[in-house]
Fold:
Amino acid sequence: MDFDFTWVLLGFPIAFTLGWLASRIDLRQLRIENRQAPKAYFRGLNFLLNEQQDQAIDAFIEAVQNDPDTSELHFALGNLFRRRGEYERAVRVHEHLMSRGDLAQPERDRAQHALALDFLKAGLLDRAEAALRKLEGTSYEEEARLALLSIYERSRDWQHATEIASKLDSTSHGSFSGRQAHYLCEQASAALAAGDADKALGDLLEACRLAPALARPLIDLAKLHNQRGQPQAALDALLKLDKTAPQALPLAASLLVNMAQNQAMRAPVIELLKTHYARMPSVDVMDALVRLDQNPASARQWYIQHLEREASLIAASRWVAGEALGTEQNHKLVQRALDHATKPLMRYRCAACGFEATQHFWHCPGCQAWDSYPARRIEELYP
Structure:
C-alpha cells in the first residue's frame, strides 16, 4: 500500500499550532507566578530596608506560603526571627529546611549552621554544641569551632576548649597557643585546689612551653614554687618574666614581698624590684619597695622619687598620709578625700570593652577577651 504524504503535510501546521498554544499557556503561567511570588518578596525587602521588621516578616511569610520550596526565603525569615529574639520561630524555620529531602548538601550545611546559631543565641548551649559538632568537615567547620570554643570558655570546660583550640591552631591562619596556655593555667588552678600539686606543676610547665612570652604561666609557676617552699625556683621564674614580659612584673609585686620574708631571698628580691623600677616605674613596684624598706624615712622617699618621675595622685596620697597637716582632725578629712579620689585610679580597665575591676583579670568577665587587661593601673595608663 502506498504511503500518503498528504497527512504529513496536514500534520505540520496542526503540530505547530498546538506547540504555539502550549508555549503561550506556559508563558502566561510564568508571568502570573513572577508577578505573585517576587511581589511579596520585594515588598518584604522594602520593609526590611526601612527597618519595619514586623511588616517584613508578614511579607516573607506570604512569599514562603506562595512558594514553600524557596530556601532563600526560609533563610531570610529565620534570620529575621533570630534578630528579633524570636528564637523558637527561627528554630522551626530552619528545622523545616533540614527536613526537606530535596535540599542540596551545601544548603543543608547552611541550614545546620543557622540552626546552631539559633540555639547559641537562645542560650541553649547543649543543643548548640550538638548542632555545631555536626558541621565538622563542612565549609562552616572553622566558624563552628570558634563558636564551640566560646561555649567551652563560658562553661569553663577547659579540656574540650584545649581540644578545639588545638584543631584551630593547626588549621587556622591565627595562633591559639596563648589560649591553650591559659586553659592549662586554669586546669593547674583546679588541680591545685584539689590538692594535686604535681599535675598543676606539669600543666604550668607545658603552658610555659606553649607560650614562652606569656606572663600568666610564669607568675602562676612562681606562686606554686613559693607555696612548695622553693623560693629560688620562684625567683628564677620571675627573673625570666622580667626579661620576656617585663610590663607584667607589677602583677607579681605582692608575691615578691612575700618571698622577701625569707632572709635569704630578701636581697635578690629587692634588687629585682629596684632594677625593674628604674626601667619601668609603677605604683605596685613602688609600694613593694616601700614595704620592704626597713627605714621609715628612706621608705617615704620612694613616694617623692615616684612623683619626680610621674604626676601620681596615688603616690601623693600615700606621702600625705605620713605628713603632719595642722590639726589631726583636718588631716583625717584631707586624707579621706584623697583616698576617695584615688580609689577609681587603682582599678584595672579592659582595653577591649572598658570593664573596670579592682583586681586584674586574664579573662575579661565583661567581653570574654583574653589578655585584654593591661598590667598597669588606670592612673598609669591615662596620666
Summary: The longest strand covers residues 348-349. The two ends are 114 Å apart (CA to CA).
